[in-house]
Amino acid sequence: MSHRSVAALAAVTVIVGLAPVSSFGQGQAGEAADAAAAWTMPRLPDGQPDLQGYWTTQTFTPLERPEHLADREFFTEEEAAELNAQLTAEGVDPSARDAVAIEDPEARERRLYQVNRDRTYVHYDNEIWLRTPVPKGLSSRRTSLITDPPNGRIPPLTPEAEARRAAEAEARSSPSAFDSHLTRPLPERCIVWRHEGPPNLPPAYNDIHQIFQTPDYVVVFTELTTNPPRIIPLDGRPHVPEAVRHFAGDSRGRWEGDTLVVETTNFNERRRFQGATEAMRVVERFTRVADDRITYEFTVEDPNTWTLPWSAEVPMVTTEGPMFEYACHEGNHDIRHILEIYRNLERQAAEAEAPESGSK
Questions:
Q1: Contact at 8 Å (CB) between 184 and 198?
Q2: Architecture of domain 159-318 in CATH?
Q3: What integer pLDDT is reported at residue 34 of this predicted model?
């Protein structure tokens, strides 16, 4: 594969930095343990761990474990190095996030390059506009971001949720389901993205998070978001009344040792994260583990949707700022005009066919 050798050395270096201690030889494990013991947690004047800065969650690691990997929680070092060489090579489209789910290396290679797409696909050059100074690869040797259940996949739906999903699919299949811009999906209307936290999932691009801290608040400002920055109080105040609902929910934080724990409830019923209802509850954990890394973990539960809670781990790695504004105006009024154009084209096509129908 011609693209792999370009990034192979850098990829192996990255993997050594990402690999869990258990994957090292005995001598290397000792060195890693010594380095961890020598590291000092950066702290604010009040003693809180310092989480501030710019962090990226970019990764090709999928949320759910690809089926062909079955019960394998981790790639081997060799597999991860080979994948990273392929994923970080020049010319790779960083938005081809489903590539890791492709078992065949040759098919995966074809998927990664925009030039292999259907000629009718019209878009800017993703490799130029989306590639970062440190190219997107795997963020760890994990085969999925989901860590629990052990199979690395979102738990089964409840019977109630199955019926809800079937009804929604039937409604979407109606020819008139999206005639109005008001019935288009919320991401299209710039109201809320599917990845927006909580919990924070890695988006296809623009994946920076900026964190600010004071003794009483932590602010998490996400780059690709339509919601305001999350201002999380740490003073023990209760959640807002149940009648108050937000797309980002209502977050409350506390310190458990050196880990920031954030509990979020009161979600708007239209949020529908992974199909969840307004009963969803999210618990996030931010732990600074190195100068260049935060371990971000979250657990999601909704008894109306899943048979079990589920958890994931997303490494947050330091990156350079500044973070620029992502501007997507709520409502996305151009959708209305796009729909008007297509209705007009459909009408013209129907009128063009009318004489032929009448002459038969």
A1: no
A2: Beta Barrel (2.40)
A3: 61
